[in-house]
Amino acid sequence: MASSSVPAPRPHRPPLPNVAFRRLRGPRSPAEFAALVRRAAREIGERVSCDARYVGRVEAGEIRCPNYAYERVFLHMFPGRTLTDLGFAPRSSVRGRAARTAGDAPGTAETDGAHEPYDTQDPYDPDDRHHDDEESDVLRRAFMTGGSATVAAASLGPLGLSLDASPAPRPRRAGAGQVSALEEAVRRIRLLDDRHGADGLYRRATAPLRAAYALLDAGATRQATADRLHAGAGELAISVGWLAHDSGRFDDARSHYAEALATARLTGDPALEAHAFCNTAFLARDAGRPREAVRAAQAAQRAARPLGSPRLMSLLALREAGGWAGLADRAGCEQALVRAQALFGRGPSDDDPEWMSFYGEAELEGLEAQCWSTLGDWPRAARHARRAARLQDPHFTRNIALYTAELADDLARGGRPDEAAVAGTRVLDLLDQVQSSRIQAMLAGTARVLLPHRRAGGVADFLDRHASRPRAV
């Protein structure tokens, strides 16, 4: 006899689109709107990892009611409106959540669901119901960050499974909850890299990657979940590969990108394939293999063409331009740059991948600056690098340091040592917040160029301060 506590089967009903929320987004792309949500969260001291996919799930009606952190952010963004005005269901009506009364303790409301990116788990969904609490805790520690992002390495502690020295048990078949945690890990790694650079993150980020591929080996309960799992594991491999790339571990980065590419080919995922080839092209350029950079960028463009994202095609054209610059092919570089600018000018679209949130006008200028620098056109490179640093959102500390380091080097090589010293000093001011071997290597090169110009204004102070910094391990 069935227990009365077990709910009767319910028919599947597709979610209703949230048209009210879609109207609030207006003409902005999902990625642009997600950036506004993250900015609003920072204004009130909240931490959310909103991205284009989250916005899409809200608008599709998959998220009937946001968790408490998102609720506070949305109500801050749209003062005077209620959750119902924003198209959400009343919290008390959402199954899987205990209804709260006005007398609930503030601590309860603040902590319940605080680590759940999407408030969509349902106790009646077999994808979520058949995983015991112990396994869920292990996977949560594997994939979710905790604490403040002020010190990046410390906040990645839970990602590295450092709370338990014993090996994690082999996971059962993955459900939607595990895949959501994996996707959230990718977003948080990217966020921490934007703020702090890669050096303090790479070693800790390899543990969730191992856990992700253990989940792949275990399989998933549904095909849709399996597709998300493969895409998430591939994106995590690319993110970890980028951390290796930016911290100077090129062989490790190449291995991680190849792993992501293999996953993309295995599952026929053109978006993941384009991303893997994009990063492979960037790595090949930095590693002194410009012809490989051109080939990888062209392969990325072939994979990305059906995806319908001009911004993605623009970025890939820039990757190709970097390869041509490395080959000293000015004509090939200029043609790719013109193509990149024209594609960028078409504006954002709903088909832009969520990982491209970093690619705006500042990054376009910064990558063009690198091309002209490689070709030895220092004045032109400096102009673009200066624009990049000026246009960059202050949230992206690492990129501000990167563009300013590029500017310092271009000015130094272009015969303007005093201005180079000023820019280099600004980078030194940021290195307490940013840990990037790539940026430190650029600054070391600038210091070498400036050595014969010690008597120029500000150069001696810059060189002395640079020399006094501890060297990266």
From TrEMBL:
InterPro entries: TPR-like_helical_dom_sf (IPR011990). Residues 1-22, 97-134 are annotated as: Disordered. Gene3D superfamilies: Tetratricopeptide repeat domain. It comes from the Bacteria. SUPFAM superfamilies: TPR-like (SSF48452). This is Transcriptional regulator. It comes from Streptomyces longwoodensis.
